[in-house]
């Protein structure tokens, strides 16, 4: 009976009480991190995004979920800061430009470097293959292989193909984030 009441209570809580998640968005420069934060924050796509210096912080409310988002710069000199912003978050989003295969090697290196940090053990990872509106973009299956996502252990890992420009697949991204909220 106690189990019944606690499950009814958690059902009520999920409807009436807001949930929150703190997330960090990392990845190489120009992959679309700031566009992602802008699109989920305001629903607005804009072609002109100012390159991020160091980081941006934004709080976004979607339904009963509040997302606190660190958007960290991707230029080489800022990559050593990623770990600091990912430490203690509920999820890490790693954005890749799926239409720019020349950068996959660097993206793979930086991703695995970041995940090897002891402070990030167990933190769930969502890899976004962005810019799928561009012809010839790389599929999820290929991204999993080139980024060696199958080698990642000890954490939840998901990979979706999406586009900030056409807002493709952002609904499943938001659902994934809602599932990491508490
Ligand atoms: N075609 C296309 N371009 C995108 C998409 N997302 C971002 N961009 C463009 O990619 C460039 C870099 O985006 P930005 O958000 O600044 O990347 P960041 O450096 O990772 O924050 C900008 O010119 C954006 O307009 C997308 O889904 N499709
Ligand atoms: Mg940016």
UniProtKB/TrEMBL annotation:
Sequence positions that bind Mg(2+): 34, 52
PROSITE patterns xref list: ARF, RAB
GTP-binding among keywords: yes
Signal peptide: 1-20
Entry keywords, A to Z: GTP-binding, Hydrolase, Magnesium, Metal-binding, Nucleotide-binding, Signal
Coiled coil start-end: none
SMART domains: ARF (SM00177), RAB (SM00175), SAR (SM00178)
Any one Gene Ontology cellular component term annotated for this protein: lytic vacuole membrane
Residues annotated as binding GTP: 27-34, 74, 130-133
GO BP, sorted A to Z: protein transport
PANTHER family xrefs: ADP-RIBOSYLATION FACTOR-LIKE PROTEIN 8 (PTHR45732:SF7)
Family: Belongs to the small GTPase superfamily. Arf family.
Protein name, per record: P-loop containing nucleoside triphosphate hydrolase protein
């Amino acid at each position: 009976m106690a189990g019944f009441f606690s499950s009814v209570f958690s059902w009520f809580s999920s409807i009436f009480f807001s949930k929150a998640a703190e997330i960090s968005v990392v990845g190489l420069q120009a992959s679309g991190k700031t566009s992602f934060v802008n699109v989920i924050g305001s629903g607005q796509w804009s072609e002109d995004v100012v390159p991020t210096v160091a980081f941006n912080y934004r709080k976004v409310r979607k339904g009963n979920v509040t997302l606190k988002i660190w958007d960290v710069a991707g230029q080489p000199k800022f990559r050593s800061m990623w770990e600091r912003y990912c430490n203690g978050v509920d999820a890490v989003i790693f954005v890749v430009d799926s239409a720019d295969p020349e950068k996959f090697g660097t993206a793979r290196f930086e991703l695995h470097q970041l995940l090897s940090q002891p402070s990030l053990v167990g933190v769930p990872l969502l890899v976004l293959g962005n810019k799928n509106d561009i012809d010839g973009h790389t599929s999820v299956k290929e991204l999993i292989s080139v980024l060696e996502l199958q080698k990642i252990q000890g954490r939840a890992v998901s990979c979706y193909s999406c586009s900030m420009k056409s807002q493709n697949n952002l609904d499943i991204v938001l659902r994934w984030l809602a599932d990491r909220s508490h």
